[in-house]
Give the backbone structure.
Amino acid sequence: MKAYRIAIVGLGPKGLYAFERLLAQLGKIEGEQEIEVHLFEKSGNYGAGAIYDPNQPDYLLMNYPNRNIDVWPTENLKPVVEHSPSFSEWLTNRTPEKVASYDDQFASRSLVGKYLKDSFENLYKRGIQSYRIIKHSCAVVDISKMEEAYKMRLKVAMDGEDQTLIVNNILISTGHCSWKGSFEERKHGDGTKIPEKSTVPFIYPVNLKLSKVQGNTPVAIKGMGLTFIDAVLALTEGRGGRFLTKNDDLVVYEPSYKEPSIIHAFSRTGLPMVPRSVDEGKKAYRPVYFTHDSIRRSMGNGQKPCFLKHILPLYKLETEYRYYTVAFKNKGLTLYPEDNANGLRRQILNFHKDYTEEYPFRFENMFRSVDIQNPSVKLGPLAYLRYLVEEAELGSEKSPFMAAAMTWGKISGLFRSVYNFGGMTAESHQMFEQNFRSQLNRISYGPPLTNMKKIVALVESGILNLDYAKKPNLLWKQNRWHLGVKNRKPVEAEMLVDARIPTNVSQADWSPLLKGMQKNELLREFIVPGKKSYNTSCPEIDRSGRLVDPEGNINNDITLYGTLTEGIVYDNDSLSRECNNFASSWALRTVEKYSEIQLNSKIEAP
Ligand SMILES: Cc1cc2nc3c(=O)[nH]c(=O)nc-3n(C[C@H](O)[C@H](O)[C@H](O)COP(=O)(O)OP(=O)(O)OC[C@H]3O[C@@H](n4cnc5c(N)ncnc54)[C@H](O)[C@@H]3O)c2cc1C
């Protein structure tokens, strides 16, 4: 009898979680047919994938604390391994003298990678005692349907023939669909070809990709999010520069003289992310105004919610409530939550009558480079960075700004249940993706405070320049990049580094695997229907992650999970085990299908 073959494509964190649940479910069943589990990870880092590569430098940090990291689920069906430590427990086991102090730290991504890899190895060792588990360190480049199974095409060597494998059931967890690898700036300038040596389209792995950047030459970096911080640190600390500290506080950057002469960073908004201290998010919070009931009350029956009309006003109200809760507390007062927004505003009005020097909270000011409590003066880049660091140090228990900025993270769980699977109107979905998603990420999901202090030290040292940060005019001419903003002399750069995280803006960004599957009529793009429907550039799945084909049929044998489903579900691009968890239902479905086949074969046997 031929083996029943199960494949997991992409063994980053989400592929690992799926593997873990599969082994747990397989442990429950018996059958005559042999089971083979095929694991595909093109980076060769099983469990960690490319993002948590254990060999990357230690200064590349996580953006959320250790207490949130745990490979093992809290489900009734226990993991098959004896030891299932959370990340903090795993760290404690490595160095027992520091017991229980790990929860409230930001670890390096490489260390998290070691934990993920270790968890994978333990599962693998346990799994091979019962099943054939085959690791393939190669990319799956195509999947097509056969009669009762699927043919996978594997790119084993760049210049060799592709190989094929027939499988019965597939989970695809390949992460970000593709790295963009191109700059739209190519279109501008003097029309001459931009040599490859003048661009870094994608920075990971940093040691390899950024080695192209020559020391002592000017560089421009596009994007000012988390990847920008990785790129800047790789070009400075990664080249032997040191951040000197006094009383645990970063004071100054000591250069190695191997870094670029200057780094000009820029983005669409020109604003850095809001950093977070390790205590941020520690205290549970129950939203007062942004609730299921209030969303339902604000909508008419049977209507889909509109982001601007039904969601945003409640988010603004929650933000205002959180801002003033801290502003009141700082004056020794208490703000009482009232069901009715007018009641809340009355208290706020009275507060301003008593404290005339306090500037009224304006939601819009969270997205401008101003001190929210004194917004009349626009802050320059360095002053704004220092402001953000000071506020983050106070944290959302003491800083009204931080309380307001962190609100999105507190309500995003409920927002997810509204957004997922096209829950909002098509216009709203589009509006959210294009105008709100990255701005909300900027204020709510920022880097560790330590990293932003390093950025401040680099601006102070003159190595990092943010004077051209807001949407400069960027041209390629006379063999160089030219950056210009109003009222400033243009500056030049030898190299342009793309430090943006690729997102699916169109199907053109899809990986060869997804493009191939689309051609083979296994999948279709998810479109939010409406008067003006919205193409999400995300493959369509049902509510348990099963792929939907061009005819709208649900494919019980192929499931998508993890970052590549971002856009049809929200907040999936994280290490979270619980958020949009399709792994558990996939594993259950897979063993049920196997059991059904076993039963049928027994009935059919004479
Ligand atoms: C630079 C960076 C920093 C981040 N920091 C954090 C953080 O601090 N905290 C957090 O929660 N999240 C962070 N994230 C988000 C991150 O995407 C998730 O934490 C997590 O990696 C998502 O897991 P995944 O398995 O869905 O995707 P991935 O981690 O991307 O894993 C997908 C894997 O599939 C493999 N693969 C892709 N295509 C194929 C193919 N065709 N065949 C075989 N293998 C394939 C890839 O090699 C990759 O290893 C970060 C992301 C980036 C890019």
